[in-house]
Amino acid sequence: MKKTGLFFGTFNPIHIGHLVIANYLVEFSDLDEVWFVITPQSPFKIKKTLLHNNHRYQMVFEAVKEYPKLKASKIEFELPQPNYTINTLVHLEEKYGNDRKFCLIMGEDNLKSFHKWKNYEVILENHEIYVYPRISEGSSEHQFSSHPKVRWVNAPIMEISSTFIRKQHKLGKNIRAMLPDAVWTYLDEMNFYR
């Protein structure tokens, strides 16, 4: 049974920080694969800075195509909106549950608000959560710190954000080094975030 980590995000755009963390997890933990699950644009809150779903999927696809253990997933594009992680997990279990065990990947900042997620108890009961470090304010002691399903991963701390990349690109800064080559090429050709 393949242990598959789910890395959720808008990936607007995907950057080397995302890749470093995902690749670290497939090489240095017991995960066999990591799927980048691209969050669709919510029809309820249209954000001008959020690229169309298919463009973000294409950038993730380009970023991971040379990494056999990393995959781009548009599974959430098919689900009714607004969607919750629990629905995605149920859907994936139904579709692939016989040969895959799904785990969540999240930054330690997200773990702090995990208790606000819909059906978080059910998620914790059925799925392991792999938590990577973030530089964050205050103490990182919280209710899930020592939960048996929470696995702390000593991945490199990557303080690059998609927001920073979009903003600086718009200002004409060279942000190319922060993106996988194929993502930079796509973004540049399409003239995104200008």
- Superfamily (CATH H level) name: HUPs
Proportion in helices: 25-40%
How many discrete domains? Answer: 1
The gross shape turns out to be globular
Low-confidence stretches: none
Distance between the termini: 44 Å
CATH architecture: 3-Layer(aba) Sandwich
**Gyration radius from CA atoms, angstroms:** 17 Å
Give the amount of beta strand, in percent: 15-25%
Strand line-up in the sheet with most strands = 3-2-1-4-5-6
List keywords for this structure.
194 residues, alpha/beta, Rossmann fold, 6-stranded parallel beta sheet, 6 strands
Could you describe the 3D structure shown?
This protein is 35% helix and 17% strand. By secondary structure, the chain is α/β, with parallel strands linked by helices. It starts with a strand and ends with a helix.
Short description:
It contains 7 helices and 6 strands. The chain is an alpha/beta fold and 194 residues long.
Give the helix/strand layout:
Blueprint: E1 2-9, H1 16-28, E2 33-38, H2 53-64, E3 70-73, H3 85-96, E4 100-107, H4 108-112, H5 120-126, E5 129-132, E6 150-152, H6 162-170, H7 181-190
Parallel strand pairs: 1-2, 1-4, 2-3, 4-5, 5-6
Helix pairs in contact: 2-7
